Structure to design on (229 residues):
């Protein structure tokens, strides 16, 4: 059973408009959430994160929103650019004082920004 | 030079072969990971090493055997694989302890098992 779900495998958006990528999770113990971006033939790269004590985190064109009651988070990209076209993975984790941290990933959403 | 380097980038092997994937990180991290990415599926965590000790083995078949000789190097030894093991294998590293856990990934090793 997938604990992190990205129900939209793909999304197309016009350049300059807003892209909204969604992610749902089932484990209420998750307290830290991350978004990764992956281009073809490259490894995923970290994009933005949010702690469960916040409901919003912003970094330039990228904003992540967290709704803990709905167990839902979303990534907003405004304005969208063709270079944003990539697969976006949502990930979640349980904060631990141990020496390694495990991330549970969603299956990804392919974003295509049309010029 | 990227922070996390994986070799080879592509590997084709038969079911009776023995091969190894190599990962090297130059970031001073103390935790390293192997993930498997199959088409249209989430990244699956295979192994976690922290301070060179294996701390997680997510029910991975014994035909996959990890090795972490030091905090900068991680290997995945492969033997008698099956065609369904064909996938992209991603290595990652992170700072452990109280860090926020961002993983730094390598570019992956694309494995095809014939």
């Amino acid at each position: 059973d997938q604990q992190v779900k990205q129900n939209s495998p793909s999304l197309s958006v016009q350049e300059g408009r807003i892209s909204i990528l969604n992610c749902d999770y089932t484990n209420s113990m998750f307290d830290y959430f991350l978004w990764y971006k992956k281009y073809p033939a490259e490894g995923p790269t970290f994009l933005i994160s949010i702690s469960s004590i916040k409901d919003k985190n912003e970094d330039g064109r990228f904003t992540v929103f967290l709704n803990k009651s709905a167990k839902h988070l979303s990534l907003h990209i405004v304005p969208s650019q063709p270079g944003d076209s990539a697969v976006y993975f949502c990930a979640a984790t349980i904060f631990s004082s141990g020496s390694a941290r495990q991330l549970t990933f969603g299956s990804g959403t392919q974003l295509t920004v049309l010029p | 030079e990227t922070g996390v380097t994986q070799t080879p980038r592509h590997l084709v092997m038969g079911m009776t072969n023995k091969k190894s994937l190599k990962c090297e990180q130059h970031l001073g991290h103390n935790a390293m990971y192997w993930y498997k990415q199959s088409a249209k599926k989430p990244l699956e965590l295979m192994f976690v090493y922290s301070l060179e000790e294996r701390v997680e083995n997510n029910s991975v078949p014994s035909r996959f055997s990890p090795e972490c000789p030091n905090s900068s190097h991680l290997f995945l030894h492969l033997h008698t694989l099956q065609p369904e093991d064909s996938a992209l294998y991603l290595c990652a590293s992170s700072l452990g302890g109280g860090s926020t856990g961002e993983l730094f990934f390598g570019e992956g090793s694309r494995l095809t098992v014939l």
